[in-house]
Amino acid sequence: MKAGAAPLLIERLSKRFGDIEAVADVDLRIRQGEVFALLGPNGAGKTTIINCVAGLSRPTSGSIQVFGHDTVRDFRVTRRLLGLVPQEIVFDPFFTPRESLRIQMGLMGVKPDLGRVDELLRMFALWSRRDSATRSLSGGMKRRLLVAKALVHRPRLLFLDEPTAGVDVELRKDLWEVVRRLAAEGTTVILTTHYIEEAEAMADRVGIINHGRLVLVEERDSLLSRNRRGQVRAVLPVALSAPPAHLPPGTRLESENVIVAPWATARDIEEILRVVRQLGEPEEISIQQTRLEDIYVDLLKAAPDSLGRHREGESE
Protein backbone atom coordinates (compact mmCIF):
# COMPACT_ATOMS: atom_id res chain seq x y z
CA MET A 1 0.00 0.00 0.00
CA LYS A 2 1.21 3.51 -0.76
CA ALA A 3 1.26 5.80 2.27
CA GLY A 4 -1.65 8.24 2.36
CA ALA A 5 -3.36 6.77 -0.70
CA ALA A 6 -7.13 6.40 -0.69
CA PRO A 7 -8.43 2.82 -0.38
CA LEU A 8 -10.24 3.36 -3.67
CA LEU A 9 -9.99 6.15 -6.24
CA ILE A 10 -12.13 5.97 -9.37
CA GLU A 11 -11.69 8.62 -12.06
CA ARG A 12 -13.99 8.95 -15.08
CA LEU A 13 -14.77 5.26 -15.18
CA SER A 14 -16.88 4.07 -18.10
CA LYS A 15 -17.80 0.56 -19.14
CA ARG A 16 -19.63 -0.43 -22.31
CA PHE A 17 -20.96 -3.78 -23.40
CA GLY A 18 -21.48 -3.28 -27.12
CA ASP A 19 -24.03 -0.49 -27.47
CA ILE A 20 -24.95 -0.61 -23.79
CA GLU A 21 -23.26 1.91 -21.49
CA ALA A 22 -23.36 0.15 -18.11
CA VAL A 23 -21.23 2.74 -16.28
CA ALA A 24 -20.83 6.32 -17.46
CA ASP A 25 -18.04 8.67 -16.38
CA VAL A 26 -18.02 7.82 -12.65
CA ASP A 27 -15.75 9.62 -10.17
CA LEU A 28 -15.50 8.31 -6.61
CA ARG A 29 -13.03 8.49 -3.73
CA ILE A 30 -13.48 6.13 -0.78
CA ARG A 31 -12.04 7.07 2.61
CA GLN A 32 -9.95 4.93 4.90
CA GLY A 33 -12.01 2.91 7.38
CA GLU A 34 -15.45 4.03 6.24
CA VAL A 35 -18.51 1.95 5.42
CA PHE A 36 -19.80 3.18 2.06
CA ALA A 37 -23.21 2.10 0.74
CA LEU A 38 -23.60 2.08 -3.04
CA LEU A 39 -27.33 2.05 -3.78
CA GLY A 40 -29.31 1.81 -6.98
CA PRO A 41 -31.95 -0.25 -8.78
CA ASN A 42 -31.22 -3.50 -10.58
CA GLY A 43 -29.09 -2.84 -13.65
CA ALA A 44 -27.90 0.57 -12.41
CA GLY A 45 -24.20 -0.39 -12.67
CA LYS A 46 -23.26 -1.29 -9.08
CA THR A 47 -21.91 -4.77 -9.78
CA THR A 48 -20.18 -3.57 -12.95
CA ILE A 49 -18.20 -1.03 -10.93
CA ILE A 50 -17.25 -3.71 -8.40
CA ASN A 51 -16.17 -6.09 -11.17
CA CYS A 52 -13.99 -3.39 -12.71
CA VAL A 53 -12.30 -2.71 -9.37
CA ALA A 54 -11.77 -6.42 -8.68
CA GLY A 55 -10.34 -7.07 -12.15
CA LEU A 56 -13.23 -9.25 -13.28
CA SER A 57 -14.06 -6.75 -16.01
CA ARG A 58 -11.77 -4.30 -17.81
CA PRO A 59 -12.91 -0.65 -17.95
CA THR A 60 -13.67 0.86 -21.34
CA SER A 61 -12.09 4.10 -20.16
CA GLY A 62 -10.99 5.83 -16.98
CA SER A 63 -8.75 4.66 -14.15
CA ILE A 64 -9.07 2.84 -10.83
CA GLN A 65 -6.55 2.82 -8.01
CA VAL A 66 -6.63 0.68 -4.86
CA PHE A 67 -4.37 2.16 -2.16
CA GLY A 68 -2.48 3.98 -4.89
CA HIS A 69 -1.99 0.97 -7.19
CA ASP A 70 -3.56 0.85 -10.65
CA THR A 71 -5.95 -2.09 -10.96
CA VAL A 72 -4.84 -2.86 -14.52
CA ARG A 73 -1.06 -2.43 -14.26
CA ASP A 74 -0.78 -3.76 -10.70
CA PHE A 75 -3.56 -6.33 -10.74
CA ARG A 76 -1.83 -8.86 -8.48
CA VAL A 77 -1.16 -6.22 -5.85
CA THR A 78 -4.64 -4.71 -5.88
CA ARG A 79 -6.41 -8.07 -5.89
CA ARG A 80 -4.61 -9.09 -2.70
CA LEU A 81 -5.58 -5.82 -1.05
CA LEU A 82 -9.30 -6.38 -1.51
CA GLY A 83 -11.87 -9.00 -0.65
CA LEU A 84 -15.03 -9.63 -2.65
CA VAL A 85 -18.27 -11.27 -1.61
CA PRO A 86 -20.21 -11.76 -4.87
CA GLN A 87 -23.95 -11.45 -5.20
CA GLU A 88 -24.31 -15.03 -6.47
CA ILE A 89 -23.68 -18.00 -4.21
CA VAL A 90 -20.67 -19.71 -5.80
CA PHE A 91 -19.08 -22.75 -4.18
CA ASP A 92 -17.26 -25.99 -4.88
CA PRO A 93 -19.63 -28.76 -3.75
CA PHE A 94 -16.88 -31.33 -3.16
CA PHE A 95 -14.81 -29.46 -0.56
CA THR A 96 -15.61 -28.90 3.09
CA PRO A 97 -15.74 -25.35 4.52
CA ARG A 98 -12.35 -25.89 6.16
CA GLU A 99 -10.82 -27.12 2.88
CA SER A 100 -12.42 -24.26 0.93
CA LEU A 101 -10.90 -21.64 3.22
CA ARG A 102 -7.46 -23.29 3.12
CA ILE A 103 -7.55 -23.45 -0.70
CA GLN A 104 -8.70 -19.83 -0.87
CA MET A 105 -5.60 -18.82 1.07
CA GLY A 106 -3.45 -20.43 -1.60
CA LEU A 107 -5.40 -18.70 -4.36
CA MET A 108 -4.82 -15.34 -2.66
CA GLY A 109 -1.09 -16.01 -2.33
CA VAL A 110 -0.84 -16.22 1.44
CA LYS A 111 0.73 -18.98 3.52
CA PRO A 112 -1.64 -21.61 4.93
CA ASP A 113 -2.81 -20.61 8.38
CA LEU A 114 -5.10 -23.15 9.99
CA GLY A 115 -5.51 -20.87 12.99
CA ARG A 116 -7.01 -18.20 10.73
CA VAL A 117 -9.21 -20.81 9.05
CA ASP A 118 -10.60 -21.99 12.38
CA GLU A 119 -11.06 -18.40 13.54
CA LEU A 120 -13.25 -17.65 10.53
CA LEU A 121 -15.22 -20.88 10.88
CA ARG A 122 -16.11 -19.91 14.43
CA MET A 123 -16.75 -16.27 13.54
CA PHE A 124 -19.37 -17.28 10.97
CA ALA A 125 -20.93 -20.12 12.98
CA LEU A 126 -19.60 -22.80 10.62
CA TRP A 127 -17.52 -24.68 13.16
CA SER A 128 -20.01 -27.51 13.65
CA ARG A 129 -20.10 -28.07 9.85
CA ARG A 130 -16.39 -27.54 9.21
CA ASP A 131 -15.87 -31.04 7.81
CA SER A 132 -19.20 -31.38 5.97
CA ALA A 133 -19.43 -31.26 2.17
CA THR A 134 -20.27 -27.69 1.17
CA ARG A 135 -23.14 -28.92 -0.99
CA SER A 136 -24.89 -30.09 2.20
CA LEU A 137 -24.92 -26.60 3.75
CA SER A 138 -28.01 -24.43 3.83
CA GLY A 139 -28.19 -21.31 1.67
CA GLY A 140 -27.44 -19.11 4.66
CA MET A 141 -24.39 -21.17 5.59
CA LYS A 142 -23.09 -20.99 2.03
CA ARG A 143 -23.47 -17.22 2.20
CA ARG A 144 -21.51 -17.17 5.48
CA LEU A 145 -18.78 -19.25 3.83
CA LEU A 146 -18.52 -16.75 0.96
CA VAL A 147 -17.89 -13.92 3.41
CA ALA A 148 -15.32 -16.01 5.28
CA LYS A 149 -13.50 -16.77 2.01
CA ALA A 150 -13.33 -13.07 1.21
CA LEU A 151 -11.59 -12.45 4.54
CA VAL A 152 -8.98 -15.23 4.60
CA HIS A 153 -6.16 -12.92 3.46
CA ARG A 154 -7.17 -10.01 5.75
CA PRO A 155 -8.08 -7.53 2.98
CA ARG A 156 -7.93 -3.80 3.69
CA LEU A 157 -10.83 -3.11 1.29
CA LEU A 158 -13.92 -5.33 1.37
CA PHE A 159 -16.75 -5.42 -1.18
CA LEU A 160 -20.09 -6.88 -0.11
CA ASP A 161 -22.38 -7.19 -3.12
CA GLU A 162 -25.92 -7.84 -1.83
CA PRO A 163 -24.52 -9.98 1.01
CA THR A 164 -27.86 -10.49 2.80
CA ALA A 165 -30.06 -11.21 -0.23
CA GLY A 166 -32.41 -14.04 0.63
CA VAL A 167 -30.93 -14.80 4.06
CA ASP A 168 -32.53 -14.93 7.48
CA VAL A 169 -32.62 -12.16 10.07
CA GLU A 170 -30.09 -13.89 12.33
CA LEU A 171 -27.47 -14.02 9.58
CA ARG A 172 -28.05 -10.36 8.74
CA LYS A 173 -27.44 -9.34 12.35
CA ASP A 174 -24.34 -11.53 12.58
CA LEU A 175 -22.93 -10.16 9.33
CA TRP A 176 -23.43 -6.54 10.30
CA GLU A 177 -21.71 -7.18 13.62
CA VAL A 178 -18.73 -8.48 11.65
CA VAL A 179 -18.83 -5.39 9.40
CA ARG A 180 -18.85 -3.08 12.42
CA ARG A 181 -15.89 -4.94 13.90
CA LEU A 182 -13.92 -4.81 10.65
CA ALA A 183 -14.59 -1.09 10.21
CA ALA A 184 -13.50 -0.44 13.80
CA GLU A 185 -10.24 -2.26 13.02
CA GLY A 186 -9.64 -0.04 9.97
CA THR A 187 -10.98 -2.15 7.11
CA THR A 188 -12.80 -0.11 4.47
CA VAL A 189 -16.13 -1.62 3.47
CA ILE A 190 -18.20 -0.97 0.34
CA LEU A 191 -21.60 -2.61 0.27
CA THR A 192 -24.51 -2.77 -2.12
CA THR A 193 -27.93 -3.70 -0.81
CA HIS A 194 -31.61 -3.45 -1.65
CA TYR A 195 -32.37 -3.35 2.08
CA ILE A 196 -32.10 0.43 2.45
CA GLU A 197 -32.59 0.25 6.22
CA GLU A 198 -29.29 -1.66 6.38
CA ALA A 199 -27.50 1.14 4.57
CA GLU A 200 -29.09 3.68 6.91
CA ALA A 201 -27.93 1.73 9.96
CA MET A 202 -24.43 0.85 8.73
CA ALA A 203 -23.10 3.41 6.27
CA ASP A 204 -20.99 6.49 6.96
CA ARG A 205 -21.62 7.74 3.43
CA VAL A 206 -24.12 6.88 0.73
CA GLY A 207 -23.77 6.89 -3.05
CA ILE A 208 -26.72 6.52 -5.40
CA ILE A 209 -26.25 5.32 -8.96
CA ASN A 210 -28.89 5.25 -11.68
CA HIS A 211 -28.53 4.32 -15.37
CA GLY A 212 -24.78 3.99 -14.89
CA ARG A 213 -24.30 7.50 -13.49
CA LEU A 214 -23.36 8.38 -9.94
CA VAL A 215 -25.97 11.00 -9.10
CA LEU A 216 -25.25 11.56 -5.40
CA VAL A 217 -22.52 10.97 -2.83
CA GLU A 218 -23.10 12.38 0.63
CA GLU A 219 -22.59 11.75 4.31
CA ARG A 220 -25.51 9.68 5.58
CA ASP A 221 -26.25 12.05 8.47
CA SER A 222 -26.03 15.12 6.23
CA LEU A 223 -28.34 13.56 3.67
CA LEU A 224 -30.93 12.64 6.30
CA SER A 225 -30.68 16.06 7.98
CA ARG A 226 -30.99 17.95 4.70
CA ASN A 227 -34.09 15.99 3.76
CA ARG A 228 -35.57 15.68 7.23
CA ARG A 229 -39.33 15.82 7.21
CA GLY A 230 -42.16 13.80 8.60
CA GLN A 231 -45.60 13.98 10.08
CA VAL A 232 -47.34 13.97 13.42
CA ARG A 233 -50.52 11.91 13.59
CA ALA A 234 -52.82 12.57 16.54
CA VAL A 235 -56.07 10.85 17.49
CA LEU A 236 -58.24 13.46 19.27
CA PRO A 237 -61.02 13.02 21.84
CA VAL A 238 -63.24 15.38 19.78
CA ALA A 239 -64.56 15.50 16.21
CA LEU A 240 -63.47 18.33 13.89
CA SER A 241 -64.77 19.70 10.62
CA ALA A 242 -61.46 21.35 9.68
CA PRO A 243 -57.86 21.39 10.96
CA PRO A 244 -57.19 23.93 13.74
CA ALA A 245 -55.53 27.22 12.91
CA HIS A 246 -51.80 27.73 13.61
CA LEU A 247 -50.84 24.26 12.36
CA PRO A 248 -48.31 23.97 9.49
CA PRO A 249 -49.47 24.27 5.85
CA GLY A 250 -50.41 20.84 4.54
CA THR A 251 -52.11 19.73 7.76
CA ARG A 252 -55.14 17.56 7.00
CA LEU A 253 -57.86 15.56 8.65
CA GLU A 254 -57.47 11.85 8.09
CA SER A 255 -60.90 11.44 9.68
CA GLU A 256 -63.08 13.67 11.82
CA ASN A 257 -60.93 13.09 14.91
CA VAL A 258 -57.51 12.33 13.40
CA ILE A 259 -55.09 15.14 12.49
CA VAL A 260 -51.99 14.61 10.33
CA ALA A 261 -49.55 17.55 10.36
CA PRO A 262 -46.17 17.80 8.56
CA TRP A 263 -42.99 18.78 10.41
CA ALA A 264 -39.41 19.62 9.49
CA THR A 265 -37.81 20.55 12.83
CA ALA A 266 -38.17 19.62 16.49
CA ARG A 267 -39.72 23.03 17.10
CA ASP A 268 -42.44 22.20 14.57
CA ILE A 269 -43.29 19.06 16.56
CA GLU A 270 -43.50 21.03 19.81
CA GLU A 271 -45.86 23.57 18.25
CA ILE A 272 -48.08 20.89 16.72
CA LEU A 273 -48.41 19.12 20.06
CA ARG A 274 -49.15 22.39 21.84
CA VAL A 275 -52.01 23.22 19.46
CA VAL A 276 -53.36 19.67 19.51
CA ARG A 277 -53.44 19.53 23.31
CA GLN A 278 -55.58 22.64 23.40
CA LEU A 279 -58.34 20.42 21.98
CA GLY A 280 -57.96 17.87 24.77
CA GLU A 281 -55.44 15.18 25.64
CA PRO A 282 -54.85 13.06 22.49
CA GLU A 283 -55.81 9.41 22.69
CA GLU A 284 -52.82 8.48 20.54
CA ILE A 285 -49.80 10.31 19.07
CA SER A 286 -47.28 8.99 16.54
CA ILE A 287 -44.33 10.84 15.05
CA GLN A 288 -43.00 9.60 11.74
CA GLN A 289 -39.67 10.67 10.22
CA THR A 290 -38.21 10.48 6.75
CA ARG A 291 -36.01 7.45 6.28
CA LEU A 292 -33.17 6.93 3.84
CA GLU A 293 -35.50 4.72 1.81
CA ASP A 294 -37.89 7.65 1.27
CA ILE A 295 -35.05 9.87 0.05
CA TYR A 296 -33.73 7.09 -2.20
CA VAL A 297 -37.13 6.57 -3.83
CA ASP A 298 -37.62 10.31 -4.34
CA LEU A 299 -34.21 10.64 -6.01
CA LEU A 300 -34.88 7.78 -8.39
CA LYS A 301 -38.24 9.29 -9.31
CA ALA A 302 -36.64 12.63 -10.14
CA ALA A 303 -35.94 13.45 -13.77
CA PRO A 304 -32.33 12.55 -14.75
CA ASP A 305 -31.65 16.11 -15.86
CA SER A 306 -32.59 17.48 -12.45
CA LEU A 307 -30.28 15.03 -10.69
CA GLY A 308 -27.25 16.03 -12.71
CA ARG A 309 -23.99 14.16 -12.24
CA HIS A 310 -21.93 13.87 -9.09
CA ARG A 311 -18.32 14.97 -9.11
CA GLU A 312 -15.86 14.37 -6.30
CA GLY A 313 -16.21 17.15 -3.76
CA GLU A 314 -19.89 17.86 -4.42
CA SER A 315 -22.39 17.32 -1.62
CA GLU A 316 -19.70 16.15 0.75
How does the major sheet shape up? 6 strands, mixed
Report strand order across the widest sheet.
6-7-8-3-9-10
- The topology string of helices and strands comes to EEEHEEHEHHHEHEHEEHEEEHEHH
Task: State the name of the first-level CATH class of the largest domain.
Answer: Alpha Beta
Q: Mind telling me which CATH architecture of the largest domain this is?
A: 3-Layer(aba) Sandwich
Helical content (DSSP H or I, runs of 4+): 25-40%
CATH superfamily of the largest domain: P-loop containing nucleotide triphosphate hydrolases
The name CATH uses for the topology of the largest domain is Rossmann fold
Question: Helical region count?
Answer: 11
Proportion of beta-strand residues: 25-35%
Tell me the domain tally.
2
Low-confidence stretches: 305-316
- Label the overall shape: elongated
Report what the structure shows.
- The protein is α/β, with parallel strands linked by helices and 316 residues long.
- The chain folds into 2 domains: 8-225 and 298-307, Rossmann fold; 229-289.
- It is 34% helix and 26% strand.
- It contains 11 helices and 14 strands.
- It has helices at residues 46-54, 75-81, 97-107, 114-123, 139-151, 169-184, 196-202, 220-226, 266-277, 292-301, 304-307; strands at 8-17, 20-30, 35-39, 61-66, 69-70, 82-85, 157-161, 188-192, 205-210, 213-219, 230-235, 252-255, 258-263, 284-289.
- The strands form 3 sheets. The protein has a 6-stranded mixed beta sheet, sandwiched between helices.
- The model is unreliable at 305-316 (pLDDT under 50).
